[in-house]
Amino acid sequence: MIEINLLPSGEKRRPARRAGGGRKLPSLPAYSGDPYMSGLGVFALLVFLGLGFLYWRVDIRKAELQVRLEKEVADSTTLTGTIDLVQRLSARQDTIEKKIDVIRSVDERRYVWPHIMDEVSRSIPPYTWLTKLAAAEDDASADTGGAKRAGPVFSLEGNTGSTQALTRFMKNLEASPFITGVTLVTSEQTVTEGRSYQKFTLEARWETPDSSFIETVPVIVVD
Q: Side-chain half-sphere of 49: how many Cα atoms within 13 Å?
């Protein structure tokens, strides 16, 4: 088959256009490889990761502190109840100790008056007799100057045939380890039915003797 070139001389046939107009797509700029920009991007990434890690740690720490706070509140509630219980028990203990002190004081003094009457009866000389023995003040009086409680003060009223007998009676009372502070309150000469005698009133105080003076006697005597 013979082809004839009808175009002017010197011109070549233009290549046929491709579908789509034959235009080339613009190309992306090539990566220049700048190290500064690369380092900046890595730094930004590290900062982002660091902030994320810190937020995660803060969240975990917050949860731990919340749990600890709840535990401390529970412990504080329990401790408050325990303190209240201890205070109530302490107040009850003080009350019990006061009652025990009263009971101990009563127990220590239960033989005081039997001892007083026994010592007085031993001290009475001949021609002397008593008409009254009574407490002069409350038995619960205490000596605030020391731990040892003072004994009761008692009074004696009676009659005697002579002043010498009264003097001897007072000396006998003072010689007792259970009696102290014997004092003559009144003394009066009296005549009844032609007989002269002396009325007197004495005061004295009970004292706790040394244990070596106390005599023990069995309650039940076995034959």
A: 6
Contacts (Cβ under 8 Å, ≥6 apart) of 122: 172, 176
pLDDT values of the chain reduced to their tens digit, one per residue, 223 residues: 555 555 555 555 555 555 545 555 455 455 455 565 667 777 777 777 878 878 788 878 888 888 888 888 887 888 887 888 888 888 888 888 888 877 776 666 677 888 888 899 999 999 899 999 988 865 444 444 444 456 789 999 999 988 899 999 999 999 988 889 999 999 998 888 778 889 999 999 988 777 666 655 444 444 4
Which structure tokens are listed for 183?
Answer: 């004092």
Residue with tokens 């009850």: 92
Number of CB atoms found within 10 A of residue 159's CB: 18
Which tokens in the block code for residue 171? 């000396």
Among residues 178, 154, 177, 158, the alpha carbon closest in space to that of 169 is found at 158
